[in-house]
Amino acid sequence: MFKNLLKHRHESKKQVLLKTEWVTPLKHTHNFILKKTSKMQNIFTQALGINSPWFIKNVEFNNKQLNIHIDFKKGSKWTNGDKHTKAYSAYDTKMKTYRHMNFFEHECYLHVRVPRIKNDDGKVRIILPPFAGELNGFTLLFGAFVIKFCKHMPVHNVCQLMNLSDYKVWKLLDIYVDEARLNQDLSGIDTFGLDETSVAKGHDYITLFVDLYKKAVVHISDGKSAKTVHDFVATLEQQNGNKEQVKAISCDMSPAFIKGVCKALPNARITFDKFHILKIINAGVDKVRKAEVKDNPILKGTRYLFLKNAQNLTKKQQDKKAELVLENYNLKSFEAMRMRETFQQIYQAPDMQTFRHLLQKWYHWVSQCSLLPMVKTANMVKRHWQGILEWKLSSINNGILEGLNSVIQAAKRKARGYGKKHFKTMAYLLSGKLDLHRINGFLPTCF
């Protein structure tokens, strides 16, 4: 009985092999040519979305890749992209190869015979297939696939995963980002934030310009000088914007930024970012603590106790703070901390009149105290008085830019080892909210 069962299984296997005659092995190779059957053609035609006059001529498969050969019908007519223009027959043809999505775990390539037409003026134009991507050698779908991966992985890792060269992937990203930025419409945008960030260790900086309402990076300039603002204005006007319409800018107290905004954006009112102001005041508080810790060792290890807001203190820090208060050490650090906390509360003022009054009181208090680091912070506030008051009218700050900082740090990791140009490309891709759908229908409108 067991022998009969084996015989039956052997005969069944033989029948299966006979039914798969559409696969023909090439002699002395590992290649296979899939015979032209209407069923097989329909499967690949539908999968690839190929329409007349294009058709699949044949398919070759080996243990490493799938090669699909595509041709066009004899006698087909072609136009220059406009249906109303004259149609031409193929002048000659050229072979092009496109990397497509993998066939299971195997790489897939489309080998296409593309026509060239000769216009009446003698100019020769190549007619690309509808699936051809922006980068020569990739289909639209494969290009979209690579870009989506690059958003979530370092480019070098993407190249290794997909067996691609770094050069080709960066070229693809540059093409899409540059074209999407060229199509950006900045008309009607009147409020921006700007801030610098380091590209690498040392003094290599870039300046980010962000649309504060869309929360999108619209321009990146090299350096952190006044010239960065002029570069931004040039980009703004190239993309339908108008420097006269820019009414509000949020930035830190950098003299270079202030100079650049005043010269390049004459109608823009500067709002000094409150987070940068608090950062400077916090630095003053910490200087007071550092000077005092020499005479009061009990203050060792209490830096963040004085710099954090009360609601953000850990249980251990809360207990330590309570201990210092109970011991009644009359610490200067507590006085400096109260100055910082009072400044923060000023931003809760209900109107401009109250805001100005409270700020004036704070300035008189701090500027006349005996704590030199805090006196310096009061003088800093006085020098930037109007820009600080402007916050009550504009209510803008660089909090969005600080939020984007994690995205920018991710861009650094994804572009690590490739230089500033590629870092900027990745920063635009991750934080520019670019409309890539206009370039490639397989990509989203807001990437």
Task: Write a structural description.
The structure is a single chain. This protein has helices at 2-19, 38-48, 140-152, 155-162, 166-182, 227-238, 255-264, 274-293, 303-307, 315-327, 332-346, 352-367, 372-383, 385-389, 391-394, 399-414, 420-431, and strands spanning 23-25, 32-34, 54-61, 65-72, 77-78, 88-89, 92-103, 106-118, 124-126, 191-198, 205-211, 216-222, 248-251, 269-272. The chain is α+β, with helices and mostly antiparallel strands. It folds into four domains: 19-132, no CATH class; 139-182 and 415-447, no CATH class; 184-270, 2-Layer Sandwich (Nucleotidyltransferase, domain 5), CATH 3.30.420.10; 274-394. The strands form three sheets. Strands 1, 2, 3, 4, 7, 8 and 9 form a seven-stranded mixed beta sheet that branches. It is elongated, with a radius of gyration of 33 Å. Residues 1-29 have low confidence and may be disordered.
